[in-house]
Amino acid sequence: MRGFVFWTAFLLFGFQVAVGQLIPWLTDEQARDVAAAAIHSAYPQPCYSTYRNERLEDFVLSVRTNPLSGDHLNNSVYFYRVASDVCEYVVEKDGKHILMSQVSMDCCEYGIVAVDRAMGKSYWFAGKEKAAVFKEFVRDEQLHPDSSRPTLFIALYLDLVRGENASKELTSLGQLRDLVQNNFQSAYSPYDRDNVWQRKFDRWWRRFRARTPQLKLETTYETTEDATVVLGYGFTGFELTVPRSDHAPKRTPEVFQWALLVRPDGTIEEHPSKVIYSSR
User: Fold this and answer.
1) Mean pLDDT of all residues in the chain?
2) What's the angle, vertex CA 32, arms to CA 26 and CA 33, rounded to 5?
3) 3-class secondary structure for 174-240?
4) What pLDDT digit, counting tens, does each position of 54-75 carry?
């Protein structure tokens, strides 16, 4: 947990030339401030929590056109998950400085922010603009599909555009079963107060397996003349709220097949998903 300092000077920090020498890349602490500043523009709060995601950073390095910067790795991009925080801060009121406190009870998750430490530029992957932000990010960072089976590039896209959760790409029945079970338990028996969920889950799973006995949950890649078609599977369950209410769960759980068209320049087109199984 840490206080938030709004440093607008960092928006241009890191890529200008001074006295013939490049200014050093932003440090981790400075990059966190840039990430927080991106959120502050839309949700002004005195402080945020920033959690670094080094796995995404490794993905970026693996799909760069320019993986080297001089004599070292071009790992200029840091990723942060930004959330609300608890902190104390000072404000001025009637000419006096007053100590204030912000109390957060797991209020808000603001999503992933990428920060280019060389340019001081941030990319906030949130809302309906995720795909557009990803396109800009790919162009600026000179990223490209890693092969005719662009597994790392697709993994980066799914994390940043589809969201960081296990349901974005299903690769086994065991993974799917765990997702469905957890979703039914949270929807029908929140806080482990009873076992109502078990009967409902068992019925859903039996019907699903009876109707899709030959289903293999794996991501496939088909190369065409000018692109790669990627097909994978996902799951969307009941819509859950925090804290859980006593109202009937909303939405219908579905297993679906998603489709992406990946072009050599890194452009990705999402095709309509195909529902494999849908039932309450």
Assistant:
1) 87
2) 90
3) HHHHHHHHHHHHHHHCHHHCCCHHHHHHHHHHHHHHHHCCCCCCCCEEEECCCCEEEEEEEEECCEC
4) 999 999 999 999 999 888 899 9
Give dist(CA 2, CA 51) in Å, integer: 11
Cis peptide before 249 (omega within 30 of 0): no
Chain-centroid distance of CA 45 in Å reads 21
Residue 277's nearest CA partner among 230, 229, 213, 212 is: 212
Is 64 or 166 the better-scoring residue by pLDDT? 64
In sequence order, the 6+-apart residues with CB closer than 8 A to the CB of 237 are 167, 179, 180, 183, 184, 187, 251, 253
Task: State the CB neighbour count (10 A cutoff) for residue 175.
Answer: 16
In this prediction the pTM is: 0.82
Nearest Cα residue to 271 out of 253, 258, 256: 258
Sequence-distant (6+) residues with CB within 8 A of 33 are 4, 5, 6, 7, 10
CA–CA distance, 277 with 275 (Å, rounded to integer): 6
pLDDT at 14 over 60: no
CA torsion angle 182 178 125 149 (round to 10): -170
pLDDT tens, residue by residue, 93-121: 888 887 767 666 556 889 999 999 999 99
Give backbone dihedrals phi and psi of 4, rounded to 5 degrees, phi first: -105, 125
DSSP code, position 43: S
